[in-house]
Specification:
The protein is α/β, with parallel strands linked by helices and 261 residues long. It is built from 7 helices and 16 strands.
């Protein structure tokens, strides 16, 4: 983990409040693995001392990309960042996704901009697989080109039916598994809203599927000191313990997570 002063080289608005930020970060980029995240000090927020976490979307040489949505004061301020601006980045933080075996089928299940770390992951897997991606509407379906270039079989679902199947993305995934998934060795990788992660995780556990989830919690320090992002999990002895999502995660095996109502 390093703190690096980086330079913005591209800032692209991609619609529906989503943007891609690219910056030159040779130290952090060189250390980054799929599933990890960075903690970014937001410019022009002098009253806030806390950094904000962002999943790593791409790494290309010395350049690192994040995909984000403008949803609050921090990300709205980030939207004003210009090419040539300097930012302070801490990272890479957290653990990474385990890599599947060549005889296993990677199945990515994403909700909204949760597709970003999965795009980074698929470029580092030994085999191509399937992508199930969902959103509220077609404007929330992102990064499909990344998966198409890799030859992934893609299934889209939107809540309003404006693209792909109407409804939650978990429905076509579960239908696919019942029809085809039992004849292969799927490994699930998922990132998105908590409700989706829980549905995917519980389905995977009940069907004996290897499954890794990228959890999203409010993080203060990003290094495990403030304990703001604890998650209950089962340890190797079946005891319930507290883990820090920023330090011990954000990637957890679905079978280890204790879901609470």
């Amino acid at each position: 983990m390093d703190i690096e002063k980086v330079t913005v080289s591209e800032h692209l608005y991609v619609g529906n409040a989503y943007s891609v930020l690219k910056f030159k970060a040779p130290i952090v980029a060189g250390l980054s693995s799929p599933g990890q995240f960075i903690h970014l000090l937001i410019p022009r927020l002098e009253g806030s001392v806390l950094r904000r976490p962002f999943s790593i979307y791409k790494v290309e040489g010395d350049f690192l990309y994040i995909l984000y949505k403008s949803v609050g004061r921090g990300t709205e301020s980030l939207r004003d960042t210009k090419v040539g601006d300097h930012l302070s980045v801490m990272g890479p933080l957290g653990n990474d996704f385990p890599v599947c075996e060549k005889d296993e089928l990677p199945v990515c299940i994403a909700g909204g901009f949760g597709v970003a770390p999965l795009s980074f992951l698929t470029k580092n897997l030994p085999v191509k697989g399937k992508l199930f991606v969902g959103g509220a509407s077609k404007d929330d379906i992102l990064c499909l080109d990344d998966f198409e270039e890799l030859g992934y079989d893609i299934c889209v679902a939107t809540v309003d039916g404006s693209m792909g199947e109407k409804g939650f993305v978990t429905k076509p995934f579960m239908s696919w598994f019942e029809e085809n998934g039992k004849s292969c060795k799927p490994v699930i990788y998922s990132c998105g809203p908590d409700a989706m992660l829980r549905a995917v995780g519980e389905f995977a556990v009940s069907n004996g599927i290897k499954c890794y989830l990228s959890l999203d919690k409010h993080m203060g320090c990003g290094i495990g000191a403030c304990l703001a992002c604890v998650q209950k999990v089962y340890d190797e002895n079946g005891n319930i313990v507290q883990k820090r999502v920023c330090k011990d995660g954000p990637i957890f095996s679905a079978k280890s997570i204790v879901w609470e109502d």
